[in-house]
Amino acid sequence: MVGSWAGQNFCALVCWCDSFHREKRRVAVKVAKGGESFAEAAQDEISLLQCVRTFPGCTPGSMLAHSVSALWGFESLTFLHLCLVFELLGPSLRCLMRSHGAQGLPLPFVKKALQQVLEGLQFLHTNCRIIHTDIKPENILLQVDEESLQKLLHDTAAWSQSINLGLKKPGSLERVKICRV
């Protein structure tokens, strides 16, 4: 079941959904926009994520395990849209920065966050030969506990109902296609 829309970028839209698995957890579903170039970008992302997942120490709950857990697609009237299912993480660093206003984030937090980002980038470069070319606060997601996540989901649902993203709501004329990774 599709929850609220979480955001979008040039290539995709992201929404929060209930998981397809028995444990009924929330997941983030990244839906690639229609068109050949967007499908190609999604396939590239899948290849990169699969590379990351193959390394020892990349187990559920580890910092490296926030990768794609399922892949499927649906057809709109004109395009196939690839969908990637991820573990649901918290807000972006950008959201946290905005909430702290002019005073900024506490220095110990900034140091720890920067250390973790640099360690992640070093891992990607050394082990997977990946160079991340879009490092910015919007692309750094925080991991939060379940209670905080529920509050965030509630607040975001109220926020998303107050704006119009111009997105087609679920349940229109789409057909689901299962794709193999």
Following the backbone from N to C, one meets helices and strands in this order, namely EEEHEEHHHE
Low-confidence stretches: 158-181
Radius of gyration from the CA trace? 17 Å
Q: From the helix content, strand content and strand pairing, which structural class follows?
A: alpha+beta
For the record, give the distance between the C-alpha atoms at the N and C termini, rounded to a whole number: 22 Å
Largest sheet: 6 strands, antiparallel
Specify the CATH architecture of the largest domain: 2-Layer Sandwich
The CATH homologous superfamily name of the largest domain equals Phosphorylase Kinase, domain 1
Task: Write out the strand line-up for the largest beta sheet, numbering strands in chain order.
Answer: 1-2-3-5-4-6
Mean pLDDT: 69
What best-fitting shape do the alpha-carbon axes yield? globular
Provide the domain count.
2
Please estimate the helix content. Answer: 25-40%
Which CATH class of the largest domain?
Answer: Alpha Beta
CATH fold naming of the largest domain: Phosphorylase Kinase, domain 1
Count of individual beta strands: 6
Tell me the number of helical segments per DSSP (H or I, 4 or more residues long): 4
Strand content: 15-25%
Keywords: ATP-binding, Kinase, Nucleotide-binding, Serine/threonine-protein kinase, Transferase
Enzyme class: transferase
Catalytic activity: L-threonyl-[protein] + ATP = O-phospho-L-threonyl-[protein] + ADP + H(+); L-seryl-[protein] + ATP = O-phospho-L-seryl-[protein] + ADP + H(+)
Protein name: non-specific serine/threonine protein kinase
